[in-house]
Design a protein that fits this description.
By secondary structure, this protein is an all-alpha fold. About 80% of the residues lie in helices and about 0% in strands. It has a single domain, classed as Membrane associated eicosanoid/glutathione metabolism-like domain (Four Helix Bundle (Hemerythrin (Met), subunit A), Up-down Bundle), CATH 1.20.120. The protein has 6 helices and no strands. Helix 2 packs antiparallel against helix 4, helix 4 packs parallel to helix 6 and helix 5 runs antiparallel to helix 6.
Length: about 160
Amino acid sequence: RRAEMAKVSQLIDDEVFRAYATYAAIVLVKMMLMSSITGYFRFTRKAFANPEDTASFGKGESAKKYLRTDPDVERVRRVHLNDLENIVPFVGIGLLYALSGPELSMALLHFRIFTGARILHTFAYLIPLPQPGRGLSWAVGYSVTFSMAYKVLKTAWLL
C-alpha cells in the first residue's frame, strides 16, 4: 500500500502531470461556466425549454410565450456543446499524453495552445467574431489533441 501511495506522490510531483492538471482544470472550469452563461441568457432573454421554468413569469397561456428558442441562448448552447465535443477528448488524451513521458516544454506547448484556442473559440463564438476566427481556433485546438494522440500511439505502439 505504501508503494502505491509513493507512486501517486511521484505522479503529483511530476511537472508534466501538474501542468496537465492545471490546464485540464482551466478548460473544465471554462466548460462548466458555459452552463451558468446559458442560464443567464435564458433568464435575461426569457427563453426557456421547460414549462416549469416559466412559472415565475406567469401561468397557463401567459407562460407559454416563454417556451421558445432564442438565437443568443442557442449560440451559447452551441459553444457549450462544442466544448463537450473538444474538451472531453482533450482531458482523456491529455492524461495519456502526460503519462507517456513527454518533455515538459512540449507538454506545456500542447496544453497552453489548446487552452488558448478554446478560450479564443468561446469569445469568437459569443461576440461573434468574423470567420475564419472561430474555425481556426477550433482547428488549432483539435490539431493539438490529435498531436497528443499521435505521440501516445507512437509511444505505446512504437509507431
